Every structure is written in structure tokens, then in C-alpha cells.
Target: Pectinesterase inhibitor domain-containing protein
Amino acid sequence: MSTFNYSLFLIFCLQALLLMISIPAIHSRTFHPNDENLIQSTCKKTPNYNVCIQYLKSNPKSSNADVTGLALIMVNVIKGRATDALNKIHALQKGGSKPGLDSCASSYNAILVGDVQQATQALKFGDPKFAVDGANDAAIEADSCQHDFPGPLTAQNEAMHDVAVVTAAIARLLL
Model:
């Protein structure tokens, strides 16, 4: 009988130990106070805190991301912004040829085909300098479009510039 009690005691202790180990693991999967701090501290190191916070907090993946993950989220924002701008450019092109519009189309194509791909690959393979370069180039392309075709694309160009410089600043933190 004492062997039975000893076995029950060991089983009880083992279950208690497993429970104590699993509670912090469960808690850490559901509550991320350090992730909120990481987003805020990262965004404070960018030239536009509000833009940074807006996009990172709106993406559910940011709650589990490290700095590289935050940079990748922002590269994806660049991609989305460039796609939106290119769609507007194509709509404007249907209204006829306008000086500078083809240049803007080329700029936003360069962002999508070159800069986004460069930044994504650089971040995934641990070479953040090229991610900084890609993001900075996206800002330059948006500025170029604004210079070549001011007016109807100003909101898209300014948004792209802001997102791109924030992305570059986050990637620069990885250097």
C-alpha cells in the first residue's frame, strides 16, 4: 500500500510541476507587454512616430514581431501603398496622356519590382543595409513622382515618402 501512495505522490508532483511550467508559457502567448514596448520604442526612433504606430499597431503580426519583423511589416506597407498609387496612375492614364504620369508609373513600378523585393530579401537574409537602401529609394521615387506630376498623386506620394522613411529608420536599427 505504501508503494501505491508513493506512486500517487510522484504523479501528483509531476502534474504540479508540469502545471507550473505551462502557466508562464500560456501567459506569454496571450499577453505581450514587452511587444507593446518594442513597438513604441522602435517608433520613437523613426522620423514619424505617428505613421509608425498607425501601421504597426494595425497589423496583428506586430504583437509577436522582433525589430526585423516590424521592418518587414513596414516593407509590406510600402508594397500596399505603391500598389494603390499605381492603380490610381493607371486610372489617370485612361483619361489620356499627361506629362509626368508615365514617369510616375515607372517610379512606382520600380518600388514594387525593385525596392520592395530588395528590402524584403535583405531583411530575411540578415543584410539590413540593403533594406535601408531599398526603403530610402522608395522615398526618392515618390519624391520624383511628386516633382514630375504634382497634384493628383500628392496624397499617395506623401504617404509613400512617410512610410518609406519610417521603414528605412527601422531597418537602420538592425545595422
About this structure: The CA atoms of residues 16 and 31 lie 23 Å apart. Residues 22-33 have pLDDT under 50 and may be disordered. The first helix runs from residue 2 to 30.
